[in-house]
Design goal:
The protein has 344 residues and is of the alpha/beta class. It is 18% helix and 27% strand. The strands form 3 sheets. A 9-stranded mixed beta sheet has the order 2-1-17-16-14-3-12-13-15. Strands 5-6-7-10-9-8 form a 6-stranded antiparallel beta barrel.
Amino acid sequence: MSGLKTSDYYFDLPQELIAQDPLEDRAASRLLVMNRETGEIAHRTFRDIKEYLQPGDTLVLNDTKVIPARLLGTKEGTGANAEILLLKRLGKDSWETLVKPGKKLRPGARVTFGDGSLRAVILDVLEGGNRLVRFEYEGIFEEVLDKLGEMPLPPYITHKLQDRNMYQTVYARYEGSAAAPTAGLHFTKELLDEIRSAGVNTAFVTLHVGLGTFRPVKVDDVTKHHMHTEWYNVTPEAAELINRTHRDGHRVICVGTTACRTVESASDESGQVHPGADDTSIFIYPGYRFKVMDALITNFHLPESTLVMLVSAFAGRERVLKAYEEAVREKYRFFSFGDACFFY
């Protein structure tokens, strides 16, 4: 089957199309709309998404909240710069982390942050070189982190973020992500209110986005790629609303690949979504049969990434690459702070 080689998802992307800053007006970003049956493409503004939604449809939104997970400190004893990036909470004060420089931060090393109100002890080396770290502090960890941490922007964004709320959806609620579910960044509260007023439902699910979402695919056989694991939760209310939407003959529209991975992970073979919390390492690439999602709002993703593979599984590899080529020609903005697409 074609489309099972990583190189099948390569496209040429000029560096200047990688968006470095968020737009002041979230909903003013551009929107490329593609009918996946005909391949027909329209160029719109994100606000126009309302015109493509119908009463009875349900938008599935990921309400995870990004934590200021990037900590810059100094190694005790040498004063050398050290960076710790929080990936996953494993206990009250212990976290799986990425560290820099890895060679200097071996088990037993200690790092101090800010005025010393937060310290870290490296306990162990985990799979893939990640570190198990225990934090020591006075007071409430989240408050200390809020004061000392920075937003963990993706590696391709080099500008400093002026307002950390711009890397947060307006409906972000549950803390735990190391990256934003960026398709949701285009929605304003006003736009969501207008969409609901038009009879469209909103279902909230939670998936804490890990940095594995940016991990490059290093094998050329797509099926051999080892997908990272992320935690998700689907409430009984969200499951019931999504299932009822299909029962009533309407569409389930996922806002972002994380919402898609959540509902597809939480469903059985018949497409029924079940409530509950679990870890998922679902890897969606061409050949996958979608059980829940009927349409997808998403950003433009990196060449050869698992996210381009997911979109290709839904809308067809050749059609997606054609849409991306047109987006490059039309100078759309790419990646986290970039423009959006709607595949239906």
